[in-house]
Amino acid sequence: MKKLIFAVLVLALAACRSREPELYTIHNASGMEASITNYGGRIVSLLVPDREGRMRDVVLGFDDLKDYYPERNETDFGASIGRYANRIKDGLISIDGKQYQLPRNNYGHCLHGGTRGWQYQFYKAVEVSANRLKLERVSPDGDQGFPGNVTASVTFTLTDDNRLDIRYEAVTDAPTVINMTNHSYFNLSGDPGSHDILNDELYINASRFTPVDDTFMTTGEIWPVEGTPMDFRVPKAIGKDIDADYEQLRNGHGYDHNWVLDTAGDDSVVAASLYSPVSGIELKVYTDEPGIQVYCGNFLDGTVTGKGGVVYGHRTAVCLETQKFPDTPNKPEWPSALLRPGETYTSHCVFEFGTR
Ligand code: BGC
Fold first, then answer.
1. Of 297, 302, 267, which Cα lies nearest the Cα of 285?
2. Distance CA 6, CA 196 (A)
3. Is there an atom of ligand 1 within 6 Å of 321 CB?
4. Quick one: which of 63, 227, 267, 324 could link to 288 by a disulfide (CB 3.0–4.6 Å)?
5. Nearest CA among 238, 255, 236, 256 for reference residue 198
6. How does DSSP classify residue 241?
């Protein structure tokens, strides 16, 4: 019997792995184009016009979709992250008095849903049209240690005013935690081989942030940005203070923090923006989430070769991850990520592109 179960498991695993990743391309009337794969729900390329009207690919990624497989590259490039974006302390959550151990894949904590989070799983394309792609994933009870059978979807819509609108939804049959995000690595110069992001201007609509310890774990405190290198309420070049003598920057190896947005869940107000003086491309981010993780590619070190054979060097991308605060399951006073049967998790993020 045991042998039979084992054989069935091996076959099932092989069947999963023999699935081929597909690429879907959506576009709008203005010529903007997004290519997304069902593997990890990853944005593979995002073509937007620069100030001269030339189309630029503004995200890091790979030409061969199988390069996204963890055995080739352990990166979160472009991914639709689940179940829980960012970190959970010691990989432990407790729901209704029951404790669950999740993978401890990052400094002893669970990062981005675990070793084989949804970024390394297949989604299924359930709706495809010229400007819209809806991906869905059924995550079984116990997936990466999380409880509940969860059905989650990510819907990407390209509007004619150059907005990539992303809507997340999830339902569960048992209490669980959900916190989805998109993990695109933006390089708005369109030329990550020659331009890092240190001269890019960043704006974050946040007067507070959540400090971390030297394992990148939130301490539970919320600090004002006022008078610190974390203050981006007036746009400034990322490189201006990134290596300042400030404990939070040492702990984060640069900027790799969650900011507490002043937008109060209003997704009509800009939460953050990024501008490349090289291309003139500006990205504005809108969200109904309370937080945004801004990660400046501090772990990129030239060991990953991406599209067109370009080597991705240190700090050649910025990730703008709209989210609940990291480790909310263990910080009850923070906005909750708990999802119960009968409820629907929703989250909204817009990446809007323009030039100046
Ligand atoms: C994290 C970084 C991590 C990166 C890549 C970010 O969200 O905060 O520490 O290296 O994702 O997974």
1. 267
2. 48
3. yes
4. 267
5. 238
6. T
Measured in angstroms, how far is the CA atom of residue 127 from the centroid of ligand 1?
30
CA gap 348, 245 in Å, rounded: 35
pLDDT of 254 higher than 70: yes
Q: CB of 136 within 8 A of CB of 153?
A: yes
Rounded Cα gap, residues 124 and 296, in angstroms: 30
Question: For residue 116, what are the contacts with CB-CB under 8 A and spacing of at least 6?
Answer: 70, 103, 144
The pair of three-digit structure tokens given for residue 355, joined into one six-digit string: 């030039």
Please say whether the beta carbons of 38 and 169 come within 8 A.
no
Sign of torsion, CA 190 64 153 77?
negative
- Rounded (5°) CA angle 224-226-227: 130
Q: Is 293 in the pocket of ligand 1 (CB under 6 A)?
A: yes
What is the per-residue pLDDT across 39-49, written as a single tens digit (0 to 9) for each?
999 999 999 99
Beta bridge partners of 168: 154, 347
- Contact assessment for residue 302 and residue 313, using Cβ atoms and an 8 Å cutoff: yes
125, 154 contact by CB (below 8 A): no
Say whether 112 is catalytic: no
Peptide bond into 83 cis (omega under 30): yes
Decide: helix, strand or coil at residue 49: strand
Mean pLDDT of 40-60: 98
Mutating to test ligand 1, I would choose from 74, 87, 111 the residue with most ligand atoms within 8 A of its C-beta, which is 111
Whole-number Å distance between alpha carbons of 224 and 274: 21
Specify which residues 45 forms β-bridges with.
35
Average pLDDT rounded to a whole number, residues 265-280: 98
Distance (Å, whole) CA 162 – CA 329: 35
CB of residue 275 inside a 6 A radius of ligand 1: no
* Continuous segment of H or E residues that includes residue 56: strand 55-57
Among the options 109, 112, 183, 195, which is catalytic?
183
SS3 139: strand
Amino acid letter, residue 117: G
Query: Which residue's alpha carbon is nearest to atom 12 within ligand 1?
Result: 76
pTM confidence score: 0.95
